[in-house]
């Protein structure tokens, strides 16, 4: 009697494909350990650039003056203007002179926090 040979699929091509996929994913994946140093809860933005420009609140702070949307105001006037903002997700662009005392910055940030304006962007000048 003749013995029947069992038919088994050749596993060599399958192992080759799996090995190539493994190498592809390892090479294409970027590992950035420095970004994982702090666990941050970053805000998400769903607005387009056009909407941000319409609803942007611009604040400038120097050593002696404070400006809201290009007009010089006091901290009290700023507070009353910010209390009337309905959209709490409005972008707040803050420009601060590098010589400003820390106390003034904290006072500004306290006002923004009081009115729950948390979508904050600190604007700086790029080096060229």
Can you describe this structure?
The chain is α/β, with parallel strands linked by helices. It has a domain at 49-123: Nucleotidyltransferase, domain 5 (2-Layer Sandwich), CATH 3.30.420.270. Helix content is 35%, strand content 16%. The chain is built from 4 helices and 5 strands; from the N terminus they run H-H-E-E-E-H-E-H-E. The protein has helices at 12-28, 49-54, 75-83, 102-114; strands at 57-61, 66-68, 71-73, 92-96, 120-123. It has a 5-stranded mixed beta sheet with strand order 3-2-1-4-5. The protein is rod-shaped, with a radius of gyration of 28 Å.
What characteristics describe this protein?
single chain; 128 residues; alpha/beta; Nucleotidyltransferase, domain 5
User: What CATH architecture label of the domain at 49-123 applies?
Assistant: 2-Layer Sandwich
**Percent helix range:** 25-40%
SS class: alpha/beta
- CATH class wording of the domain at 49-123: Alpha Beta
Largest sheet: 5 strands, mixed
Average pLDDT taken over every residue: 77
Helix-strand sequence? HHEEEHEHE
What spatial form do the alpha-carbon principal axes imply?
rod-shaped
**Number of E strands:** 5
Q: How many DSSP H or I helices?
A: 4
- Runs in which pLDDT lies below 50 for 5 or more consecutive residues are 34-45, 47-53
How large is the radius of gyration? 28 Å
The name CATH uses for the topology of the domain at 49-123 is Nucleotidyltransferase, domain 5
Amino- and carboxy-terminal Cα gap: 88 Å
Strand content: 15-25%
Sequence of strands across the biggest β-sheet: 3-2-1-4-5
